[in-house]
Structures are given as C-alpha cells and as structure tokens.
Amino acid sequence: MSGNRVAFAVTLAASAFGILASSSVAFAQSSRPYETSFAGVPVGPNDWILTVKGNAQITPMFEGSDKTSFVIFPSFTLRRATEPRRFAAPDDGVSLTFYGNPVVSFGVVAAYQGGRYYQDDRRLFGLSKINWTIEPGVFVELWPTEQLRGRFEIRHGLNGSGFTAGLALDWVERVGRFTVSGGPRAVLADSDYMDKYYSVSPYEAAINGRVLPFKAKGGVRSVGAAAAISYDWSDEWNTTLFGRYDYLTGDAGKSPIVRAFGSRNQFSVGLTAAYSFKTTW
Known about the structure:
Elements: H1 3-29, E1 37-38, E2 41-42, E3 47-60, E4 68-80, E5 94-100, E6 104-113, E7 133-142, E8 148-156, E9 163-175, E10 178-189, H2 191-198, H3 202-208, E11 219-232, E12 237-248, H4 250-254, H5 256-261, E13 265-280
C-alpha cells in the first residue's frame, strides 16, 4: 500500500473514531428504547431481522457518463431484533452491524461498483476497460437527534481501484406509515481510485484521438444530495422511491473523459421493494 493510501485511510479512520467518541455523551442522555417485538411476536437476544431488497434504478452508464442505464439488483441488511429499527437510505451500502445502540452503530459494509466498457459508449474507443467490482469496507452511523442521521463509509474495490469514502447526512421525518428523508452527500477518493476511473494515459489518448493525456489525483470526487420517500405496508413490507444527484468535482470533473463525452452532473432514480423477516441464529 502506498504512502498516500495509508495516509488517506488513517485520516478517515481517525475521523470515524472521532465521531464514535463524540457520541458517548449523547448516548448517555438517550432514552430511545430497544425493540421488544417484531410483527407482534416477541424477540430474543438470538433473533435477527433480515431485510431482503429488490432494487430497480436508472443510473449513469459509467462514472462520468452522460448516458444512463437501467439496472435491477438485490441487496440486504441485517440487524439484531432487539436493536432499535433504524432508517436506511437507499444509497447506503449493504450493511452488517457489529455493534449498535440508539445513537451510534458500526459494522461492515459492501457496495457494488459498475464498470466501464466499450460497448457502453463507442466514444470510449482506446480507453482501458474497467470491470465491475464489489467494494467491501466499514461504516459508522450516528444519530445525534431523533431526526438527524450521519453516516460514514470507507470502502476499497476488490479490483484494486483504491479507497473511497462516502459522507451522508439525512433529515428523517416519519409521518404515519410514510418516511421522508434527504440531505447532502460527498464522496472522497484516493489517487489510485481517481487514476483508474478518470486518468487518460498518453497511449490511450493517442488511440482514442478525442481526449488528451491526464493524470487524476485524489481528493473530493463529488458533492450532491439525495432524497427518498418510503411507505410501510406492514412490519414486513416496505417500498421506497428515491433520487440522488452528484456533481463531479476536483480531478473527476476535470477529466477529459468527462469533458469530452460525459457530464459532471450525475443523476440516479430508483424504486426499492423490501421484505423483512425474523430469523434465529
């Protein structure tokens, strides 16, 4: 691991532990109860709630693309049945909580990262193919108030693409069976990630003929916002409609790939159907 990547990981890890430490006072003052039942059935310390989701999304065809694609994919979340039911934003990674209380939780996370292929856009001729990958990592989530949620994820692609860190802040309002949420987003990436997705080598530039050589460096990849509205049909069934906007900044926005045949404005919309059930381990 290079020095830049080590420094990046250490800085983000320190930030995460800072958030965790600062939550201790709020936790001491919290009175939010733990759940004692699910779907009217009592739960015990060995019970878990598994939520299986089907997701349909319209997203950019690849990072920085000005074209969109339609994708359908599954995901899931898992929590102890005795933990408080938590809000989960549609753009959260797939999470497994190791520890949680009404104010703070942390665990492991994974997210799907799409690739970039010549068949996606013929203008990519000569540029390196990027295979899709899974990005495992860790997350920390903080609820300083009943309505405000902060979430931090740091992940690393299995294809060696480097580290990314997602920062999300959501204001969450529950009105009857409806839950409305939204807030700002920011994504940071190290030099390895930016180089893979946004750099253009002299060889690639010569073959493509429409872009100039460019070496992308790490930093803030994008800033934006997300919003969602969900409806609980029952304790088991839920549907969510959501949207997200990201504006590519720094070297991501300067990349010839984005400037020549892409867009700094990245939009995603989607619909999720979720089914939750209790299981005992």
